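Quick question, first post here. What does this chain look like in 3D?
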Amino acid sequence: MGEKVADRLFELLNKAIARELGVSIQYMWQHVMALGMKSPEVKDIFKDIAIVEMKHAEDIAERLFYLGGIPTTKPTPINVGESLSDMVGLDLQAENEAIELYTEIIRVADEEKDSTTRLLFEEILMAEEEHKNTFSKLLK
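> Answer (accepted):
Ran it through. Tokens below.
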């Protein structure tokens, strides 16, 4: 890996870790705080996705550390929302941001001929697209 691009990849991986930490907390708090007639079914979705996101943070941190970087411990801002529809709307926005970021990471990893990082993010991207689909359906 070239030094400048390695730095760029490290920066992107830390951005991904911070995002995964932030949304895992966000979704878990939404699981706790969700109220209303539809909340029982949605609460479980929030919790299940929160756990998946935390696993993503762990996998990305392990990869970054293996590459010689130091994983961040600071999450991105957490936006819980007021109502159930607010919560799902914020989550859909977060998933769209993840898809954009992870697509960029795949491109940079490919440029660096880092097939392991590329493969990791291709797998995570699939999960994020599933989460986007889940939140999109909930908003309908």
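Helices lie at 3-33, 39-66, 84-111, 115-139.
The domain at 3-139 is CATH 1.20.1260.10 (Ferritin).
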